Amino acid sequence: MIELENVSYTYGDGELLSDVSLHLQPGSFHFLTGPSGAGKTTLLKLCYGALLATSGRLSAFEQDIARLDRDQMALLRRRIGVVHQDCRFLDHMTLAENVALPLMVSGKGENAQKEDLLELLNWVGLGTRLDALPPELSGGERQRAALARAVILSPDVVLADEPTGNVDWEMSQRLLRLLVELNKMGKTVLIATHDLSLIRAAKSQVQARVLRISQRQIQLAGADL
Amino acid sequence: MNKGTIRSMLVRDKRADRVVPPSGYTAQLTLFVSGAMAFLAVFALALSLASGRLADRWASELAGAATLRINAPAEQLSAQTEAALTVLAQTPGVASARALAAEEQVALLSPWFGPDLPLDTLPIPQLIEIIEGEPGLDTAGLRLRLGAEVPGAVLDDHSRWREPLVEAANSLRRLGWVSILLIGGATAAMITLAANASLAANAQIIEVLRLVGARDRFIASAFVRRFTYRAFFGALVGVLFGMTGVLLLPEASVEGGFLTGLGFQGVGWLLPALIPLLGAAVAFLATWTAAARKLKELS
């Protein structure tokens, strides 16, 4: 599904990732952990084409990401839902419009049923906040809205970058449950987090691989949870 | 870019249009520039059309006629006039020829000498008005024959008057079209600048749109639609003001000369209606080009 073969990424004079290899199998659940600045976000960005590897080969859905033009990249991103650390909303649009943005840009906005959107927002517990503007949302609400936006096109892969970074324990558990639920629907999930308690909490819910980035390399952190 | 792409870019999609926040000075700048340029374009068009009419009129009024002047001593004037009329009657391409009556010659001279001119006391040449017919006058041949048979005859086919006047009018017409082209170019440049500023100001929005899978065409469309419609409405207002200005110009009159004829006539009144459409087309192309370049730059 997403495959990295000896991928390195250099920014300026420093190498952030060196010879990283990783294969995300369909329907798998991964945690990516490591200290701040280790390169977790960089690795996620490489996976959805926001950054291009300095060397090595990175393919998604059997396409070499480095060879995609801008239109092909856009189509690829419709198959990869991303929950960004800082959520990245359009502040002048309502929550419902922000969540429906991937539908709109992919030309499916016309056919999208309002009921489906409402169902999705109810699923993430935001059914009553449709008309709220992003600055009016709490940290937890923003993260859940970002998750809803990431999955609205029913992507094959969901990448989440510190999805529980700005929320309390209870909310982080709620978000984790949503991501686990997505995995049970057959989606491949990769969560970048430095929150080990989140990984421990996931133990009882899902079979997950925990990967750790250390010294520019990726390692299996331990036995399967 | 095919027809479908152009249509999809221009058809209003309220939800997609909301993606780019409707604010910023670029909106006012586009409206003002296209309005002002359309206003100027109306006058340039009026100038060009009026010059064209003038050139055509001068060309047609003077082209079909020639004048023969008989310079001869008083005692030979009548005989030479008769000889000239005989020659003209036998010349192909002369539809009619007649000697001007003394009153007509006085009328021609009176603007310079006053109405009480004692014509009979002055050695004034006799003028013969020639109206051309088919197959057209062979002036060189006619001059040769007149030179042999009517020594005092001087043929004036008006070309030395007509050509500089027509050329001047044609130059004015060209000037009008060049002005319109310059106005179009300046509009395109200003709208390109405004579109670039708008694209740069919305770089973060473009980034978010790309992250959720927006293709360049979707992003560009949001900007292209906005600038095209702004340019169209700005130009429409500019044309209305310009047309009002032209309507307020004095009516064409003989006394007023060229300036009073500076307006539209007949179907010419419909031509300014094309200006908003052309303005919109210029804005469309300018924004599309700017967006394509900027999106490539931002990738």
Shape of chain B: rod-shaped
What can be said about the biggest beta sheet of chain A? Answer: 6 strands, mixed
The oligomeric state of the chains shown is heterodimer
CATH architecture of chain A: 3-Layer(aba) Sandwich
Strand content of chain A: 25-35%
Number of helices of chain A: 8
What does this structure look like?
The complex is a heterodimer of chains A (225) and B (299). Helix content of chain A is 32%, strand content 26%. By secondary structure, chain A is of the alpha/beta class. In chain A, the strands form 2 sheets. Chain A has a 6-stranded mixed sheet with strand order 6-7-8-3-9-10, with helices on both faces. The mean pLDDT of chain B is 85. Chain B is an alpha+beta fold and 299 residues long. In chain B, helix 3 runs antiparallel to helix 7 and helix 9 packs antiparallel against helix 10.
Structural descriptors:
heterodimer, A: 225 residues, alpha/beta, Rossmann fold, six-stranded mixed β-sheet, four-stranded antiparallel β-sheet, 8 helices, B: 299 residues, alpha+beta, 2 domains, 10 helices, 67% helix, 8% strand, rod-shaped
